[in-house]
Structures are given as structure tokens and as C-alpha cells.
Amino acid sequence: MRVGGPLRRCLRRNPLRRRSDVVEGWTVLCLTGVVLVGAPVAGVAAGAPALAAARAESRAAHAESHSVRAELLDDAPPLATWAGAYGSAPSRYRVPVRWTTDGGVTRTGSARVSAGTRRGEHTELWLDRRGRPTRPPPEASDVWLRSVTVGMGAASGVTAVAVLTGWSVRRRLDRGRLAAWEREWASWA
Fold first, then answer.
1. Which end of the chain is more exposed for a tag (fewer CB within 10 A), N or C?
2. How are beta strands 122-128 and 65-72 bridged, if at all?
3. Eight-state DSSP code of residue 127
4. What is the dihedral of CA 179, 184, 187, 189, to 10 degrees?
């Protein structure tokens, strides 16, 4: 296996090898290890607690709310055909709905429904303990997406720190090498 660049200068004996080459090679080797090992570890270490917290939040939201079947009192606007050319149009709209509580009382409010939903159709509406419309509790896919996003953010952070560290070490070593070349050049002049 051939090892290239600064790593080769670090690991092989060479009469032209400078101390800065050794430092650069070991820096690349260590930072590669940090990215290959540290980034996944940081991702799991950040994602696991985020998953537990999101699951607990989802369970609490499910315990504090319940769904009812609500009838639409008006049509939702159709999906805009211009959305592709000019940006994104909303795919869900707030429309008036009517539902019956567990006690048999009819109530009205508004709910977000898909574009193109017609009057008289039914939708699922989530209510809090007081019977007021609320957001639906997070689904399992939302819980996983949240934890994966946190984990990927942590892994990306470790990678970014490693890359910036390598860049700053290399820049400093390059400045030192340029200064050494200047001194040697001046001694020949």
C-alpha cells in the first residue's frame, strides 16, 4: 500500500525530511483518526439523548391530546400549478371545520388540510385536554428525523473542527517553511 503526501514524509526515512514534514504527517494521521472515529462517536453520543428526549416528548404529546373526526365547512384552495416555476406554494391550508366532542357538543374551529380537499370531507383534528385544537403529536418519523439531524450536526461539527485544525496547522507550518527558505536564500546572497 502506498501512502501519499505528508503522511509518506512522516513515516519514511528520508534525508530531506524536515521536522515540519513530520509534524504535518502526524497531524494528518491524527486528524484522520479523529474524523473516522470521533465523528461517528459524537453523532451517536448526541443523537441517542436527542432520540430519548424526542420519544418522551412524543409520548407526552400523545397523552395530552386526542384526535377527533372533523368535517370541512369550506373547500381548501387547489394546489397551485405555478409553484414549480416561482417557488413553493403551500400544500396545506387552514379551513373551517366542525366536530362533535365526547359529550355530544358540536364545535367549530379551523384545521390545516391538504390542498384541494372539498367541503363535506373529513379530516383528523387533534384536541388538547380542554378540547381546543392543537398540533398533532410528532410521528415516529419526526422523532427519528430529529435525532438523526442532531447526530449528523454533531458529527459535522467534529469534522469541521478537524478540518479547520488541519488547515491552521498546515498554514503555520507553511509559514515556517517559507521563513526558513528566506533565511537560507538570504545566506546565499
1. N
2. antiparallel
3. E
4. -100
Measured CA distances, 78 to 41, 67, 85, 114, 134 (Å):
47, 25, 17, 9, 24
CA 1 vs. chain centroid, Å, equals: 36
- Tell me the C-alpha distance between 16 and 6, whole Å: 13
Specify the 3-state DSSP secondary structure of 165: helix
Task: Strands of the chain (E only): list them.
Answer: 65-72, 92-100, 106-114, 122-128, 133-134
The answer to whether 137 and 65 are in contact (CB under 8 A) is yes
Cell of 104: 355530544
All three cell numbers of 145: 428525523
Collect all residues with Cβ–Cβ distance below 8 Å to 122 and sequence separation of at least 6. 69, 70, 71, 72
CA 34-36-38 angle, 5° bins? 45
Give the pLDDT confidence of 34-92 residue by residue, as tens digits.
999 999 999 999 999 999 999 999 999 888 888 888 888 888 778 766 555 555 656 77
Start-to-end CA span in the chain (Å): 43
Residue 9's pLDDT band, with cuts at 50, 70 and 90, is: low
Pairing of strands 92-100, 65-72: antiparallel
